[in-house]
Specification:
By secondary structure, this protein is α+β, with helices and mostly antiparallel strands. Helix content is 26%, strand content 30%. It is built from two helices and five strands, in the order ββββαβα.
């Protein structure tokens, strides 16, 4: 299983991507858009078959939550997978935009 240390972040002024490197072209990723300085919108999560069943998608969300707490940012999870993870983890409610 991957750890949060394996989850990498690449971002620009307006968007970003958390990802875990896979073989070849099979990175698991979560993409987001920045809506101002205090809000991110998770718009897509993709986990290739090579990562399925290993908790990689949940690790991507966990890392977003950790970073949001550290930066004082709120999250809107538009992506269905991210939204379902937030419903399963009420302990992450502090970073949800209400």
């Amino acid at each position: 299983m991957t750890s949060n240390n394996d989850v990498l972040l690449k971002e620009t002024a307006t968007k970003g991507r958390y990802y875990v490197r896979g073989d070849g072209n099979s990175d698991a990723e979560l993409t987001f858009s920045k809506a101002g300085s205090g809000l991110i919108i998770i718009d897509h999560t993709e986990v290739p078959d090579a990562f399925r069943g290993k908790g990689v998608g949940a690790r991507l969300i966990q890392r977003v939550v950790e970073d949001a707490r550290e930066r004082g940012v709120k999250i809107i999870p538009l992506c269905p997978f991210a939204n379902s993870q937030f419903h399963r983890h009420p302990q992450w409610a502090d970073v949800l935009k209400r």
